[in-house]
Amino acid sequence: MTPFNLAQKSLTRRKLSSCLAIVSIALAVACCGVLLRLYLLMSQRFSTLGRGGDAIVGAKAGGIDILLGALNSEGRYPDFLPYKLFETLRAQQGVSFEDGARAEPDYLRATIPFLYFAKYYNYRAVGTDGTFFNRPQADESPTFREGHQAETPLDIAVGASVAEQKNLKVGDEITLRPWVSDQNLPSGDGSHSAFLKLKVSGVLNPTHSMWDRMLYTTVPLAQSVVATSPGLNDRSIWGSSVLNYFLIYLKPRGFQPLKDLINKRTVAQSIFVLDEKKNLEELTGTGQAVGLFVSALVILLGGLSVASMLTTRFDAMGTQLAVLRAIGYKKSEVAQALLWEGFLLGLSACLIGMGLDALLFPIVRAILSSSLPPPELIDASIFASSPVWAAAMAATIASVVFPLLKLYRQDVHRSLQ
After folding, report:
1. Helices (H), 43-131
2. Cα(60)–Cα(221) distance, rounded to whole angstroms?
3. Residue 95 is inside which H or E element, if any?
4. What pLDDT is attached to residue 319?
5. Is 37 left (phi over 0), alpha (psi -120 to 50) or beta?
6. Per residue in 213-272, pLDDT tens?
7. pTM of structure
8. Where are the beta strands (DSSP E) in 49-134?
9. Domain boundaries of the chain, sorted by first residue
10. What is the distance in angstroms between the CA of the first residue and the CA of the last residue of the chain?
11. How far apart are CA 273 and CA 268, in angstroms?
12. What DSSP designation does 136 have?
């Protein structure tokens, strides 16, 4: 009988012990795999930020709130800014103040409007204009795969992920629900009873960022939806002539004068995108380090538990090893049988653990959806759990070392007595 056959016989002869070992290892593999994949996703939580603009102007709030609201399409509905301020900045006109001060915003290269006004399922629709698309100076600027930007109040362009997930193409008609506030609305999503029917005018190329999960139409259409919003006068002193954000491209050393103008002299707040991204990385860096430590610790503890359990199993095989030696098997053949047994246990457990990992991970991801990047932009493949499989196999095979040492030191006659 070959060493492989001996390993098979040993596993099947003690079915309960083998099953318990396989189930225990499989659960450890599945839990560690899910945890590792979650860590990998959390470490990329903000890697899908939309890329565009050197600075952002929004209503006064925390810098990170403005960054995530404008570039990551998350959070509650943002407050309004006067459209007149946007027009002044775009035209680079001089701004006079009551105290006699005057500012000349000649440090801007481009100013892009953003106004959220509706949702298509969980995707946000924004009013903007042609300056957002096809910017030759900006590699990150969205471009069109087919069709064109919205040109009439009945048109809307869709991001690549929206088109893929909802199977949309140019010419399709879609229905959106208005979303211009989160206040005093029972549903909590700002939806109204009225709906908007718009025609898809274009589909954007993938940018692998949050721009892929948005829909784009004209600012006048967005402002017309805001105009019909209940309680608008309580939320805006400028009526519907408003925006949520300005995305701004700056000339060299242009942020400080922009900050002096906006933060000190207006109701708005400007942030420098690179600075806020660094602040965000510092804020989340500690949590990521703790997540990595916990993931590594769980994998280590799982591997040690596997090794301990199998060491106990193999350590109890002293008499069986002595019998095999007594009936003529060489030490090398018995050693091969032990290694095969450890390998088969680990392989069976890993395969079952992989299945449990694949089954459980989507459920856990759905529960933590708001804390993870969208699956269509960033996904953690089942193969991301491969370090866990390697650790489990290594622990399983390593557990055979102890009985191997015992085998080579064993006194067959004394063991049989």
Report:
1. 63-71, 83-91
2. 25
3. strand 95-96
4. 63
5. alpha
6. 999 999 999 999 999 988 887 888 999 999 999 999 998 888 998 898 888 888 899 999
7. 0.76
8. 55-59, 81-82, 95-96, 102-103, 108-120, 123-128
9. 3-45+285-416, 61-91+108-250
10. 25
11. 16
12. T
Per-residue pLDDT tens for 309-351?
666 665 566 666 666 656 666 767 777 877 888 888 889 989 9
Burial class (CB within 10 angstroms; exposed 0-12, middle 13-18, buried 19+) of 241: middle
Q: How many residues does the chain have?
A: 417
Other beta carbons within 10 Å of 137: 8
- In degrees, rounded to 5, the angle at the alpha carbon of residue 119 between the alpha carbons of residues 56 and 42 is 60
Mean pLDDT by 10 residues, the chain (417 residues): 76 79 85 85 83 90 91 91 91 59 74 95 94 71 92 93 94 94 53 77 93 95 92 87 94 88 88 91 69 68 64 62 64 76 86 93 86 80 87 79 64 52
Structure tokens at 236: 């805006």
What CA dihedral angle connects 404, 409, 411 and 417, to 10 degrees?
-50
